[in-house]
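Structure in, sequence out. Go:
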């Protein structure tokens, strides 16, 4: 079993994921941000699956390894879809939704093919390597897309407070995870993922829950304040 610190971080993350979903329901915004809530609900399901394999087979077992990396890939894919849903909200009034969805699907397919090509060159060709490679590449793609979206927010003078802060928090989250993956490649995978990944995983539900509690859907930022945040 993981140590007390790792378990504590894990439990805090679960509580924060539940908090965001509960706040969304209480604020009557669950379906408005359906894909964001779906991401956290999948996260709760993944936590349950990981705990099952962890308690039954042990931390160093192949079963737990498969469960961890494939649920991680699933969550990364769900977060990618959540990011695209934020794109759709920003560009919704410009009627670019169809183009956004088509471009996102092509980018996702290209990322998956690239990840497979990288793994296929390995002599071992472990299936967990594909899940790990896909998650890593999707986080990098998500990081780039989030900063592009933030540029669009500034260009379009988007002032919806919730939407702006959701995107800002997502940019910080992707940046932190990209750094985590870089460190993972330089050291022991599990020792880094166990602590850093868990701590970073608490960042997104914490900031999004705070935003959901503090601001209503009608809240707006002043354009001058939005530019100040960008600096």
């Amino acid at each position: 079993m993981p140590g007390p610190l790792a378990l504590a971080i894990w439990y805090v993350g679960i509580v924060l994921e539940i908090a965001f979903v509960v706040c969304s329901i209480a604020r009557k915004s669950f379906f408005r941000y359906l894909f964001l809530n779906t991401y956290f609900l999948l996260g709760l399901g993944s936590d349950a699956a990981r705990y099952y394999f962890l308690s039954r087979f042990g931390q160093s077992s192949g079963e737990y390894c498969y469960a961890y990396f494939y649920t991680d890939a699933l969550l990364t894919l769900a977060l990618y879809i959540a990011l695209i849903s934020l794109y759709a909200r920003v560009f919704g009034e410009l009627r670019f939704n169809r183009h956004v969805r088509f471009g996102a699907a092509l980018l996702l397919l290209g990322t998956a093919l690239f990840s497979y090509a990288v793994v296929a060159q390995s002599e071992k060709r472990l299936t967990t390597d594909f899940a790990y490679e896909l998650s890593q590449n999707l986080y990098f793609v998500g990081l780039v897309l989030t900063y592009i979206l933030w540029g669009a927010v500034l260009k379009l003078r988007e002032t919806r407070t919730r939407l702006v802060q959701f995107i800002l928090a997502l940019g910080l989250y992707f940046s932190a995870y990209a750094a985590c993956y870089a460190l993972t490649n330089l050291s022991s995978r599990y020792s880094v993922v166990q602590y850093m990944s868990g701590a970073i995983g608490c960042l997104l539900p914490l900031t999004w829950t705070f935003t959901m509690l503090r601001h209503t859907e009608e809240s707006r930022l002043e354009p001058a304040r939005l530019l100040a945040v960008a600096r």
